[in-house]
């Protein structure tokens, strides 16, 4: 028989998923589940910055021209990121 201590109220429980005293999850699987859920909720509630909102609006724009602009902008951003990565690699190699 496994005994688990509740992290919230300190009650010792037998092989239960939830604390018999306060109902908090005490099995590792339950705790992980609750924590991932919390993180997801936090991320969902996190305010997006202006660029993200702008990109989102472009991506789902009703005009196909605007969606095209978004795709082009996105591709250019990707290329610049790749070039930036390449230069960072060059600098690292030159110094190494
Ligand atoms: Zn408890």
* Overall helicity: 55-70%
Query: How large is the share of residues in beta strands?
Result: under 5%
Low-pLDDT residue intervals, each spanning 5 or more residues: none
| Bound ligands, named by name, code or SMILES | zinc ion
Cα end-to-end separation: 57 Å
Could you tell me the mean pLDDT?
89
The beta-strand count equals 2
Q: How do the strands of the widest beta sheet line up side by side? A: 1-2
Q: How many strands, which pairing sense, and closed or not: the largest β-sheet?
A: 2 strands, antiparallel
Number of helices: 3
Reading the helices and strands in chain order gives EEHHH
Overview of the structural elements:
This protein is mainly α. It has 2 domains: 42 residues, no CATH class; 46 residues, no CATH class. It has 3 helices and 2 strands; from the N terminus they run ββααα. Strand 1 and strand 2 form a beta hairpin. The longest helix has 32 residues. The radius of gyration is 24 Å and the shape is elongated. Zinc ion binds next to loops.
Primary descriptors:
single chain; 96 residues; mainly alpha; 2 domains; two-stranded antiparallel sheet; 4% strand; elongated; binds zinc ion
Summarize the structure.
The protein is 62% helix and 4% strand.
């Amino acid at each position: 028989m496994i005994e688990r201590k509740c992290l919230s109220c300190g009650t010792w429980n037998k092989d239960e998923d939830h604390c018999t005293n306060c109902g908090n999850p005490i099995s590792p699987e339950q705790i992980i589940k609750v924590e991932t859920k919390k993180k997801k909720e936090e991320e969902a509630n996190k305010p997006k910055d202006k660029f993200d909102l702008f990109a989102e609006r472009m991506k789902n724009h009703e005009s196909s021209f605007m969606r095209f602009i978004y795709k082009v902008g996105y591709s250019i951003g990707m290329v610049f990121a790749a070039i930036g990565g390449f230069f960072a690699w060059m600098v690292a190699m030159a110094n190494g």
